[in-house]
Amino acid sequence: MKEHIKWLLKELPILETRNVIDSSSADALREYYREKEDSISAAKAMRVLLRTFGIAMFFAGIILLLSWKWDSFPRLVRVGITFIPLLAALFAGTPLLLKRGPSSAVYDEGTALLAALGVALPSGMIARIYNVDFSLLEYLRLTMLLGAPLIYLFRSSFLAGLYCFGFVLMCMNTDYHGPSLGTDSYMLLFYVLPALPFLLYHFRCHSTSLRTIFMRYIVFLLLVPLMFAFNRNSLYLPLFAGAGLMFVSGLLLNIQGIPMLRNPWLPSGYFFMTVLSALTAMKNNWFSVDFHLLAYGGSAAILLGLFYAIIAYCLYLDRKSAGWEKYTVLLFLCLPLTHYTRIAGSLFLVLSGVVLIVSALKRKDRIGFNAGVLQLLVIFFCRLFDSDLSLLFRAAAFLLAGILLIAGNSAVSRYFYRKALHE
Amino acid sequence: MNKIRCFIFLLILGCSVIYPLRKILFYEYPAVEPSLFLFHCGAFDPYIRGRYLALHPLPDSVELPQSENIPEAKYAVLAKDSEGYAVVKDIVAVPPSDGSVYLRIKYHGIYREWNKSKKKNCYRHHFSLPFTRYYLDARPSGTTQPVLKKKNTGCTLRIKIYSDGSYLADGITFDETIPK
User: Fold this and answer.
1) For chain A, does the N or the C end have fewer beta carbons within 10 angstroms?
2) A70/A77 Cα distance (integer angstroms)
3) Which has more pLDDT, A13 or B21?
4) Per-residue pLDDT tens for B132-160?
5) Is B103 helix (H, G, I), strand (E, B) or coil?
6) What is the rounded average pLDDT of the residues B109-116?
7) What pLDDT, in 10s, does the model give residues A249-262?
8) Chain A contact present for B20, CB below 8 A
9) pLDDT in the model for residue A96
10) pTM score, two decimals?
11) Cβ–Cβ of A131/B135 closer than 8 Å?
């Protein structure tokens, strides 16, 4: 069914140019079948989810069955049992990889998961059976290193998600001591690299498939811990660069017409940017970078270089689209470089809010308009609520602002509605 | 192309077998026989978390002449007392080369204490030993089960320590009181 819809959507422009159907009919058909395609994707997602749960429950049953007699097995048998998934992966994976032509995505994902289990289980279980020295960090390092190539061999999105989850655990278990970020932080960067090409390829992909949408969400699992893990010892730049990266990537997907639920990067980038700039506007020297420490933490500098390179690339790709909001990111990245963060943060929020409002009015985009208004409100609230001005003045200002906002919002909503109706 | 992919897959599976096999051979047939040490443990977590006991192995501090923090300390050099219990002789940054038995530790810092008998300040260095959990059998035996539910109970761990500082928890016995 989905293939038929895809074929029809591809045929529509041809039918339109050859005057078989007029443009209004083509638009109506396009809209109708896009909605239908979305509902098919949702139904498919639900079906896959239920099947996955079914398989997980089946395997949980096998695990419980083994636990029932686990103590009565001699040690050698217990060790042997831990190698069963590895053997199963060998028999399932080899014919799949030798097979020519396309294979089912579900079979690919299942085999990849089995292979990952086969790789991860023996090392962990040996430590458990012998009660030996094997920390979680060592275990993660070993299994992630061996598991990363499996992502590419089976083109498995699920395994990529698991890899990112492992990376989050790794960040949580990494120790940071002293002013410099030690070898552990270089190790973290090293473990980002194997999965990055796969994730970025699917992130940038134009397809509306579940896999692509899943990837857009899953890349968060890599980015967010990196932003926070390296945000130590006054090195706040990764936090700002990560937020900027999210926003720019979100804009890039937005101009391709990808809707909000399939593009979580735009709202989260906007959220991080607004919160961080509001925090910097609260007090001078908040989030200011100590350059001496930055020079110390070489791994943080490498991460920053990586972030900035991706931001520059995104801006380059987005150069032809209208709107100035993408360039406000450059200003945002400069915020932690100054000690006068109170003024810089306030200026940024005002400028960004105005730019968002102007661009949204040009594009007749109501969400963009509200996002701009929200940024102006945030700075208004931050700077005025506990300022040194008299209580009466502040109360009057807030009352007036509240009334203006409610009235203005309904007026703008009516304006956008009338515009849409007119068109 | 498919053959290369298959070869890489087999290589990964082969590599993933190496580590557990090496560990099994190392623990089953050690080149140098490991030393058996007993370790007192403080109160364990009576709730079995996923079939393991959360332990607090002792000693967790040692009195040393150094009055400064030793942040680079990574290893505890061990000796036995008359009953076979482990005693920490020193904490060092690099493994000792004189054949002493050692264990990897996590150093926490120094605390100054007043020593009543010597009537002077002494410097106690705190650390934690690596074996903080012990995996039980899936169904604890009839004698073990009531002890696991008791509070204020300590235990003794039997640890085999190998020449490279790695260890194997050989067994556990439950005491009636928490050791001081």
Assistant:
1) C
2) 9
3) B21
4) 878 776 555 555 656 666 666 778 888 88
5) strand
6) 78
7) 888 777 777 777 77
8) yes
9) 83
10) 0.71
11) yes
Which three-class secondary structure string do you get for A288-329? CCCHHHHHHCHHHHHHHHHHHHHHHHHHHHCCCCCCCHHHHH
Eight-class DSSP state of B53:
E
In the beta sheet, which residues pair with residue B160?
A: B36, B168
Percent of chain A at pLDDT exceeding 90:
1
DSSP A336: G
| Structure-block tokens of residue B12 | 């990964």
Residue with tokens 């498939």: A209
pLDDT at B122 exceeding the cut of 50? yes
At residue A402, the pLDDT reads 84
Name, in order, each residue with C-beta under 8 angstroms of A213's C-beta and a sequence gap of 6 or more: A262
State the nearest Cα–Cα gap between B1 and chain A, in angstroms. Answer: 9
pLDDT at residue number A33: 75
pLDDT for position B49: 52
Angle B25-B33-A122 from CA coordinates, rounded to 5° = 25
With the CA atoms of B59, B60, B65 and B68 taken in that order, what torsion angle do they form, in degrees rounded to the nearest 10?
170
Q: Do A153 and B9 touch (CB under 8 A)?
A: yes
Q: Over chain A, what is the mean pLDDT?
A: 79
Question: Tokens at residue B129, please?
Answer: 């030993």
Angle, CA of B103, B104 and B106, to the nearest 5°: 130
Q: What residue in A sits closest to B16 (Cα-Cα)?
A: A119
Assigned token pair, A389: 């001005």
Q: Which two tokens stand for residue B170?
A: 């050989």
CA pair distance A382, A274, nearest whole angstrom: 12
CA distance B73 to chain A (A): 13
> Half-sphere exposure (CA, 13 Å, Cβ side) for A298?
5
Interface test with B, best of A87, A90, A125, A131 (most B CBs within 10 A): A131
Q: Does the interface predicted TM-score (ipTM) exceed 0.90? A: no
What pLDDT, on a 0 to 100 scale, did the predictor assign at position A179? 41
pLDDT of residue A49: 73
Distance (Å, whole) CA B111 – CA B87: 19
Q: Using an 8 Å CB-CB cutoff, list chain A residues near B102.
A: none
DSSP string of B29-41? Answer: S-SSPPEEEEEEE
Asked whether the beta carbons of B87 and B103 are under 8 A apart, the reply is no
Dist CA A373 CA A414 (whole Å): 16
Cα of A3 vs its chain's centroid, Å = 28
Query: Between the CA of residue A402 and those of A7, A28, A381, B8, what are the distances in Å?
Result: 51, 41, 11, 64
Q: Which two tokens stand for residue A239?
A: 């936090």
Q: Residue B128: which of B151, B109, B100 has the closest Cα? A: B109
Q: Residues near A47 by Cβ (< 8 Å), separated by ≥ 6? A: none
Mean pLDDT in residue range A204-233: 73
Please answer whether residues B76 and B106 qualify as being in contact, where contact means their C-beta atoms are separated by less than 8 angstroms. Answer: no
pLDDT, tens digit, for every residue of A315-372? 777 777 767 777 888 888 888 877 788 888 889 889 998 988 888 888 777 778 888 8
Q: Which of residues 98-117 of B touch A (CB under 8 A)?
A: 104
How many other C-beta atoms lie within 10 A of the C-beta of residue A120?
A: 22
CB-nearest to A126 from B23, B137, B138 is B23
Q: What is the pLDDT of residue B40?
A: 84
